Amino acid sequence: QTGTVAANPEQYDQAYICPVTIGSQTLHLDFDTGSSDLWVFSNLMPSSEVDGQTEFNTNSAGATKKDGYTWSISYGDGSGASGVVYADTVNVGGATATSQAVEAATSVSSEFTSDTGSDGLLGLAFSSINQVKPTPQTTFFDTVKSSLEAELFTADLQSNGPGSYTFGYIDSSKYTGSITYTAVDNSQGFWGFTAGGYTVGGGGSNSTGTIGSAIADTGTSLMYLPTAAVQSYYSQVSGSSYSSSQGGYIFPCSASLPSLTVSIGGHGFVVPGSNFNYSPTGSGNTCFGGLQENTGIGFTIFGDVFLRAVYAIFDETQGSPRIGFAAQ
Ligand SMILES: N[C@H]1[C@H](O)[C@@H](Sc2ccccc2)[C@@H]2OC[C@H]1O2
Predict the structure, then answer these.
(1) Ligand 1 center to residue 82 CA distance, Å?
(2) What is the DSSP code (8-state) at residue 320?
(3) pLDDT of 206 above 70
(4) Ligand 1 site-directed mutation target among 14, 75, 110, 215, most atoms within 8 Å of CB
(5) Which residues pair with 31 in a beta bridge?
(6) How many angstroms from the chain centroid is the CA of residue 153?
(7) Fewer CB near the terminus (10 Å): N or C of the chain?
(8) Which helix (H) or strand (E) holds 140?
C-alpha cells in the first residue's frame, strides 16, 4: 500500500498539519520527524485545555483501551502532554494501520492548547524513543512499513501553500536532479546525519567550518546551526543583531538576506535567503531570523526552514536507515 497526504502550513510556516483518519474521526496532526508518539486531544481532557481542537472520542466502537498503559512526553521547546493509550485504525492518505497505538491526552501544556490548528502530533522518528509505559509502542511508520510498497516516507514542505507527505513511494515530480543519500545515525532515536561545509551567499566558498552531526526535524520550525555558521551568516545581513529580549537574531524586515548552501553527502543544497525571514517580531519593523544558534539545544536541527528548500526521503529500504535530499 501507499499513502499521500497534504501538509498544510500553519501561520509563518510554524508547523505542518495533515488530516489523519482515526476510526471514524478525522483529526489534523502535526507530523514530527523529531519525536515518536502519535498523541491526540481527547474527550478525557479538561475543557480548560481545549481551544477548538477536535477531540479523539475514546468511547468510539473501534477504540480499544490498552489497560495499564500511560504516556508522558516533554519536547525540546519545553512543551509537553500526557495521557492513556488506545488502539485504533489509523489511515494516513490511504496508508492504513489496522491497530495503531493512539495516545489519548488527558492533559497538554499551554503551547498545545494555543496551537489551535493542531489536534495532536504524529511522530515519525524512531520507535526507540516512544514514551509509552510499560511498553514503548511503534510509530505509525513502523507499524505500516512492512506493508508499504517501499519502506520509506517523504516530505515535501512548502511555504504558504500545501505540500505533502508520501508513504511507500517517492514522487518524482517533487524534485529536480538526483537524490543524494547519506547514512542515518538513529542511536538517539532521531533521523541523525552529518552535514559538511556551508557557504553564505552565492559567491564562492566563504565557509571556514563544517556543521557536523544534525537531525532532520519536520516539527521544528527553524534551522539551528553551530554559532560559527550563524554568526558568519548574520555578518552578511546589514542591521542584524542578537536580541536577548526576542531570544535570537533579528534584522530590519527590509534587509536583503543571503542564501545559505550546505553540503550534505557531497552535494550543495541551497536554502534561499527568503527562507530566513521567519516572522515579524512585532516591534520596530524588525523580523525574526529563520536561522538561529543551536547553543540552547545542544544539537543542530535542520527544521522546516531547511526542509522547505528540498525534497526529503526518510528511507529504511536498505536495512540501515538513510536520508535522501534532492533540490526542488
Ligand atoms: N520536534 C519538535 C516538536 O514537534 C515540537 S512539539 C510542539 C510544541 C508546541 C507547538 C507545536 C508543536 C517541539 O518543538 C521542537 C520539537 O519539540
Answers:
(1) 14
(2) S
(3) no
(4) 75
(5) 122
(6) 13
(7) N
(8) helix 140-144
37 Cβ closer than 6 Å to some ligand 1 atom: no
HSE-up (13 A, CA, CB side) for residue 19: 10
Atom of ligand 1 nearest to the CA of 219: 4
Distance from Cα 284 to the centre of ligand 1, integer Å: 28
Q: What is the pTM of this model?
A: 0.98
**303: amino acid identity, one letter:** G
Percent of the chain residues past pLDDT 90, beyond the cut: 97
> pLDDT per residue over 98-124, tens digit each?
999 999 999 999 999 999 999 999 999
Look at ligand 1, atom 2, and give the residue with the nearest C-alpha. 219
Q: Are 20 and 122 in contact (CB under 8 A)?
A: yes
Per-residue pLDDT tens digits for 133-191: 999 999 999 999 999 999 999 999 999 899 999 999 999 999 999 999 999 999 999 99
What CA–CA distance (Å, rounded) separates 150 from 286?
45
Q: Give the Å distance between the CA of 24 and the centre of ligand 1.
A: 26
Q: How far apart are CA 61 and CA 117, in angstroms?
A: 26
Contact 43, 136 (CB under 8 A): no
E strand segments, 265-309: 267-271, 277-280, 286-289, 291-293, 300-302
Amino acid in position 237: V
Q: Determine the residue type at 81.
A: A
Nine cell digits for residue 7: 501538509
* Closest by CA position to 42, among listed 89, 111, 103: 103
233-270 tens-digit pLDDT: 999 999 999 999 999 999 999 999 999 999 999 999 99
Helix (H) or strand (E) holding 29: strand 25-32
Q: Where are the alpha helices (DSSP H) in 165-303?
A: 227-234
| Cβ count within 10 A of residue 299 | 16
Please report where in the chains the cell 545581513 appears, as a residue.
237
DSSP 70-116: EEEEE-TTS-EEEEEEEEEEEEETTEEEEEEEEEEEEEE-HHHHH-T
